[in-house]
């Protein structure tokens, strides 16, 4: 549970008289359901229990009983006597166990919270029950009672009537739901039962064939560490009276004939050390059977490694032109960067006065961020901003509405990622967020449709990838991911629907470093640029059939030594590609493609009159009243954003020489400290 129970005005109310229910404890040894992968375990078992498990049940008269299950999920189990701890009123349609003796009752009007201390019901401010919600009432009905559960830590998980898996957390000190209905997954209407065990571990029973599927959600990083792993055979459909847990991958099932059966799963070996162990009968008569969820636990830690991501100095500026708001002809130019002390700074410009007045705001000055942010417009034409925090997590900020100067509140997306985020709007108008973890594997945080929440992170694959992933949207909800691995090899993969439809594969060559740059040419052919350790920027053009020759050729003429990551863009007026790079002496140089499609390059020409610029450049195109334009941003020695603007679009369109235009540095209003 989040937080502890309030200590003010707490007293213990004595329990009722004991009532024996001997029939419920009759012991048999018949086997029932065969799980998968029953092989002998070899590693040390991290399973432990802190004492007897508290097992509760109510009866049709509204009485509530409790009994100790000693040595749960072992061959040496034994039962304590059943004790009457509630003489009336326990007629809830659904009762759930939680950690530390917590009990949650749901009826047609509300949900209540109770806590059994071992000798009586805890009383807070004179009451043994807290009304904690007027929602959840549908889970008191037969159609949904098996689709809500509480895990070992006290978090609630449920499947709603649209098949979405949702996550809730109740904070007892504040008596508030601090996590309220966050969508974790979709398509769970295929399951007719869900039961939680260890923190974030869920077992779900498939309606179609009764098989059991296991999930592990890491609440700290909001990652799916395991999704939809088949662990149990179709026989789990025999537990028509439900499943419950005492924590740590333990499962207790009740058959229609009242047989009570215990199981325990081991994730590290994919085995069931305890399976098909019937240890009770007569349990079918009880409307609700449940247990305290934290009697047993695992001493093994499954949480991911959290990378160290300290504040980066002179991180690049991210720029995009927002879609026009309702009634407007042009969208504003949005600029975001993280300054040298970790603040997220936002600027907004009129595209007809690019490089002129800029309205700057510190969007975040409390949490510390690092690296280049990511920007994208959503299906509602709102700007969405994603930043990488120094604790590795990703945070998001969404414009209140298209064209608005206001923003919604920051939202945490978890992640514990090493790389900066990369975001793209797919062809179905949904967003997908990508990043690399500590080991250089690629993860995705997809959106639930074009207007839904961002779902938790799912691992896609790859290993040892470096820099930041570059993502380009394709047809039919696909995206191409380009990255460089630890050997300096440029790799590409294809993504669709939370999976890689083609795994990472080399396009040839070694010795590359940093983050590549990609231009998508007509015909959906990729032209990839990357900095090489030999002191050049090189290019490779994809073959018409989608393959790669593996042959790289240098870009630009002249004696410069590039540093950082190059920026490239296909100019919308000239139809030629511009490459801009920062050099080791912190100057900015550009090289133009000499003719459309030539993939030959002019000289490296100096920009900015030889002044010093410490941030890698970011090129962007924009639309203003005169047509399309091209510009780029860097940052000067004081950390301030520095724009470079091409000549007027009419003059640019008439430019015919191979050199191409030199960009003009502009002075803009700078953020104030």
Commentary on this structure:
The chain has 673 residues and is mainly β. It is 1% helix and 45% strand. The strands form 13 sheets. The chain has an 8-stranded mixed β-sheet, with no helix packed on it. Strands 3, 4, 5, 6 and 24 form a 5-stranded antiparallel β-sheet that branches. The protein has a 4-stranded antiparallel β-sheet with strand order 7-8-9-11, with no helix packed on it. 44% of the residues are buried.
List keywords for this structure.
1% helix, 673 residues, elongated, mainly beta, disordered N terminus, 5-stranded antiparallel sheet
Shape type: elongated
In percent terms, what proportion of residues is strand? 35-45%
Biggest sheet statistics: 8 strands, mixed
Q: What is the averaged pLDDT score?
A: 91
- Our Rg estimate from Cα atoms comes to 30 Å
Number of helical regions: 1
Distance N to C terminus: 41 Å
- Structural class, from helix and strand content? mainly beta
Estimate the helix proportion, in percent: under 10%
- List the uncertain runs: 1-34, 37-42
